[in-house]
Amino acid sequence: MKPIYSILLSSLVVLFSCEDGDSEIIFDENELIAILDADDAVGLDGFDDGGLADLDFELGLETGGIAKILGDTLSYGEGYRIRFGRQINDIDRTIEFTVNGDTAIGFVTYNITGVFMVQAIDTSNHEAIDSMSFSKDLNVVFTRLVRYVNVEHTGNPDGHRWEIDALTPLIGGAGDKVSIATIDIYSFNGGAEVDLLYSFASDGIGELFIDRESLPTFTAFEPVLIRMTVENEGPEYAIDSTGVGEWCMFRYARDGQHRGRRHLNDTGRFFDTVVNDNVHTGSWRVHGPGAEQVRRVFRSFFDVVDLATLFVEDGGFNTAVWSIPYMVERP
Questions:
Q1: Prediction pTM value
Q2: Are 325 and 41 in contact (CB under 8 A)?
Q3: 181-210: per-residue pLDDT in tens?
Q4: Is there a contact between 155 and 194 (Cβ–Cβ < 8 Å)?
């Protein structure tokens, strides 16, 4: 079902006098909402998995002609693999505005409902194991701040227009078992990180305004290393001898037809250095901006989910997510 957006706002138009007295600033909620809807950096397109999906996948993105080597699922000694994903049924959005002269702040809340699906697959015959496959309801809440500024613009009758100046990461989740502490992204060469490119920490993340014209930017087809530190309040449910009680995923998308997912591991392998230290690591080869595009905006979703959510039908639904917009540009 296509998500339904519900905007719970009353129409409001307010006039503010400029200091020079020559013109007035017009604040219209409908105008600011339209600007928000038109901005590629905000929104939730790509967060929906569309139902069951392989652990690592990529759909519709420009790969630069180099084939991706992806593990479709993880295999275990028990002889099964899993596919999982979210199917979003409804998105209810509310926005509250506060205005101070030529600056407006929009507090955006998303309440998302849908279904979380898990399917176990027998590795001997590649058929679903019905007794180990299930679905459960999900309800996820996200919030973010969006800052608008009113600037001079000769193309408008009043000589001004509103534009998005900055926005905070979209943060939220469900339950209280897991949380994200830090996200660090490094340039990557020869199997090790080289330089720290971007770093985000939970302290103040909800008020960290990112300049709309200076989004995190990556060069197409270059490798980067992602380290995601998380916290798990437990009780932890582990599926193997490593004792790891959660999985971390890095989702990246422009929309439902252009998206991907990478698993970050805490098993002491594949660029991860210490087993079960709550630091999940993975490499990512940056996709291209798309055909005939020089640079383009996309959205990331850093997601941690406890393994009881994934492997126990009545294990609840516990996840934490940070979404940060980014830019991809050609070399």
A1: 0.89
A2: yes
A3: 999 999 987 666 679 999 999 999 999 999
A4: no
